[in-house]
Amino acid sequence: MSITLTLTSAAIIAGISLATATSMAVIDQVSDGVFDASEGIDTTFVDSEILLKTLNGFDCHFNVVSKNEYIVETTCGNIRYAREDSSQAFKMYLDEIEDVDGLLENLKSFEVDYGRNVQAYTYNHIKDNLSNGMSIAEEEVLDDDSLVLTINIQ
Known about the structure:
- The protein is of the alpha+beta class.
- Helices cover 39% and strands 29% of the residues.
- It is built from three helices and eight strands.
- It has helices at residues 10-30, 48-57, 100-128; strands at residues 2-7, 41-42, 61-66, 69-73, 78-82, 91-95, 134-141, 147-153.
- The strands form two sheets. It has a five-stranded antiparallel sheet. The chain has a three-stranded antiparallel sheet with strand order 1-8-7, with helices on one face.
- The longest helix is centred in the last third of the chain and has 29 residues, at 100-128.
């Protein structure tokens, strides 16, 4: 017997969520050059280790304030990711935004990278935690970067 698991393309998920929620919230906050830095924008970033890995791979300077707060300095402006505790997703807070279009491009790219890191983590977690009598029979990467795993169960 075998089962098939599909890990949906992280790039597609990130692109959809950014196009709707994040970019609209950023545009709302920076309209007319005035924004409320105290109002956070919801993100999909839940795992602090994956967020740090993504920040390390991105071309930016960031400071770790705590495991629940990171300050990112970019050429477009400053971003603070913060949350009350590890059970929540991070919120994004904007500060000193100089280039809204550049910021939106950076956020889209960053969110896609974060999604890919989540997908890679999930893939590795599945592979590392297969039970006895289970093995991966086939791995396939689809055109949209989704992963299809066929697992044999004996």
